[in-house]
Amino acid sequence: MRRYIAVFSDLDLISDVCLPIVQQNNLFAFRNLNMSKLKNHNDLKTDDESITGANNHPLSGLSSDKTKDKTTNHSHMNSEEFYRAIFEHTATANMILAEDTTVLFVNENFEKMMGYSKEEVENKLPWTKFVVEEDVELMKQRHLQRRTAPASVPTTYEFRGLTKTGEIRHIFLSVDMIPGTANSVASLFDITEHKKSQEAARHSEERFKDMVRLLPETVFETDVDGKITFFNELSFSRFGFTQDDLDRGLYIQDVLAPQEHEYFKTVFQDVVRGQRVELKEMLAQKKDGETFPALVRCAGILINGEPAGIRGFLIDITEKKTLENQLLHAEKLKAIGTLAGGIAHDFNNLLMGILGNLTIMLMHMGGAHPFYDRLKVMEDYVHRGSSLTRQLLGFARGGKYEVRPTDMGKFVIQSAEMFGRTKKDISIQLEIGESLWHVDVDRGQMDQVLLNLFVNAWQAMPDGGNLYISVKNVELSKKEMNALGTSGKRFVKITVSDTGAGMDEKIMSRVFEPFFTTKEQSQNTGMGLASAYGIIRNHGGYIQVESRPGRGTSFIIYLPPSNHKAQDEPQKESRIYKGTETILLIDDEQMIIDVASRILEELGYKVLSATSAKKGIEIFQNSKEIINLVVLDMIMPGISGKEAFDILRQADPSVKVLLSSGFSVDSQAKDIMAAGCRGFIQKPFTMAQLSQKVRQILDGDLHPDNDRRPPPPTAATQPQNH
Asked: What is the residue-wise DSSP string for 434-457?
């Protein structure tokens, strides 16, 4: 049942009255009565035209409950008590205001709303008593204007009411003048809870807007035709589109690679019909045509149960795919590297046998011998083979041999200048940063890396070109750290760039694979870049390649800084040092035993030998008083080099051991040397190298990382140039 409730006290004083229409305790419309036109009770009717909604729009379909007893109503209409009863019992708080702001009358609902009694208010308090201080001035202006220029002031508005207890309430006010008087009548409706709900909804909306805006992924909405109606901020920067593009008309197909369009048409229709598309990997496309891998999830938008479009999000997984590819690449290289390392180790043993016998033959053969030149050529071939095994070991991450803190700026300059002297058709541009951090590197291996990169650049520029080399300190961003897969932040960055033909993505993805080459096999083994990759990774660094066809190629190296000061490069010596001490050789290769024994004997040493760790340990335990040095192979069946070293140390803690291996100094060799081993020599080695290592340990008791020159020769160690 609808109720129409008038707010007035005396028919003779009121011409226009606003009647609040309340249903289920909610204000939803107003009924305007022109009291001056009421001549009898029959004029109190509720035609639809006189009813307006709370937003001042006419309402239709409303009718009043007409009284059946017109006579009775007529008597009440002429009764002040009747009008006062209506005034008192409306669902809203009502009051009549005097020109001087005094409150003349209030009803019971006003008492309930504001906490004041009639006795406290009527003809005693101004209406400003019930308004928060900040709203009083504006309402006073409207109070005055309503009496001087009524057309200029609204009849409905909101203000903040103040109860007797000091509580602030949000109030909707409907007020108008009583014709022929300076008084006004007002209806007050408490909308505090409604305002709270509105504010909560607004905060919730703002919160979710901020969340969407700040999301690190693309969020989008479309209409039923696939036209994008919403993009969050990240989407514009990620795809390169602008708000103008969106306003002109941007479709979901515009952010997907062409090969995805047909598939997404089917998906789109399914989503619009209410199906949810779970995470699906697709190829997204930027405004400039660049593509990137992405995960897409979307769901349909329903309005009143009808499809209205789709909404979803798109996640850029470029970094994830890069890391996956790096992992696959690393795992593949690890497997190949293990094989390559084993081959290199065995090959070095063979080369040791050849080089050792060549050395012995050349010692007893003068330059005039008809086979001398041939033997020197063979010796050169052995060194070339040894260089190849070093590349294999570098790729296999067989370890760093002689690590020293190094100024990479000076080191790169030296390497570049040396390369530039042989390649006059290449213009080398150097950019070296200031105060570079030092880096712990094996200088021989690092020189190998740089040479491979320089040669690769030179081969990419057959008609000449520019080679740009830069070295600088960098601190990586979080994104850059994630891209490399590192937790480190500080690196020395080396960039080698050429102006050559460049590479496509297919070739670029394989440049670090062993034995992969785009050149003739006679020109390239395909191990250069693979070896560079292994060496850099073994130094705790990272190497990347960037290239585009026709735009040249850049190789970028990141090396972690050292905590030590740089050291000068030690001078290489070719002098041979002799001796008379007793040396025990332990190696499972008989060929190595034969060759090394002969070389040591030629140097004047007494030699004991064993082809197994077990036999060598027995010999040492029985003859340790006369054994001055043990040359121990690191890789042996049965008892390993590490186990053999530990047993030798138990037998004699002061034992001097020179570790020998076809591998570089890997983690196993480092462990042995850290435990007290005096030195390391890599196969194949020359007579000069062996003689120097032996004398360093016997005479100088030098640690292998100490690169001092051998001690001055004694009577027993007269040097020979050979």
From this structure: SSPPPEEEEHHHHHHHHHHHHHHH
- ∠ Cα 256 259 260 (to 5°): 50
Tokens of 443: 């200088």
Of 176, 171, 199, 196, which is closest to residue 186 (Cα–Cα)? 176
CA–CA dist 143, 97 (Å, integer): 10
Q: Scanning the structure block, which residue is given the tokens 């308004």?
A: 131
Burial 632-659, CB ≥16 within 10 A → b, else e? bbbbbeebbbbebbebbeeeeeebbbbb
pLDDT tens-digit profile of 121-142? Answer: 999 999 999 999 999 999 999 9
User: What percent of the chain shows pLDDT beyond 90?
Assistant: 30
Planar angle of CA 55, 57, 58, nearest 5 degrees: 140
Of the candidates 74, 95, 68, 118, the residue with the CA atom closest to the CA atom of residue 8 = 95
Question: What is the distance between the alpha carbons of residues 98 and 597, in angstroms, rounded to a whole number?
Answer: 126
The structure's pTM equals 0.40
Q: Interior CA angle at 367 toward 366 and 373, to 5°?
A: 120
Cα–Cα distance, 440 to 428 (Å, whole number): 26
What digits encode the pLDDT tens for the residues 421-477? 777 778 899 999 999 999 998 887 888 889 889 988 888 888 888 999 999 999 999
Q: Decide if 695 contacts 711 (C-beta within 8 A).
A: yes
Q: Domain 399-559, what fold?
A: Heat Shock Protein 90 (3.30.565)
Residue 66, classified by CB atoms within 10 Å of its CB into exposed (0-12), middle (13-18) or buried (19+), is: exposed
| Token digits of residue 289 | 């045509």
Phi, psi dihedrals of residue 714, rounded to the nearest 5° = -110, -175
Phi, psi of 172 (to 5 degrees): -95, 125
The CATH architecture one would assign to domain 582-700 is 3-Layer(aba) Sandwich (3.40)
Helix axis angle for 667-674 and 641-651, nearest 10°, is 10
* Record: fold of 215-316: Beta-Lactamase (3.30.450)
The CATH 3.30.565.10 portion of the chain extends over 399-559
Query: Is the C-alpha dihedral spanning 516, 517, 518, 522 positive or negative?
Result: negative
Angle at 702 between CA 700 and CA 707, to 5 degrees: 110
Residue 29, helix vs strand vs coil: strand
Give how far Cα 47 sits from Cα of 30, 62, 108, 187, 548, Å: 12, 8, 29, 22, 80
CA pair distance 633, 645, nearest whole angstrom: 10
Q: Which long-range contacts (CB under 8 A, 24 or more apart) does 149-152 make?
A: 150/177
**Range(s) within the chain of domains with CATH label 3.30.450.20:** 3-192, 215-316
Q: How much is the mean pLDDT over the chain?
A: 78
CATH class of 3-192: alpha beta
Find all residues with CB under 8 Å of 259, minimum gap 6, and list them. Answer: 283
Report cis status (omega within 30 of 0) of the bond before 684. yes
* In contact, 219 and 313? CB cutoff 8 Å: yes
339: pLDDT strictly greater than 90: no
Q: Which of 99-113, 338-352, 611-625 has the lowest mean pLDDT?
A: 338-352
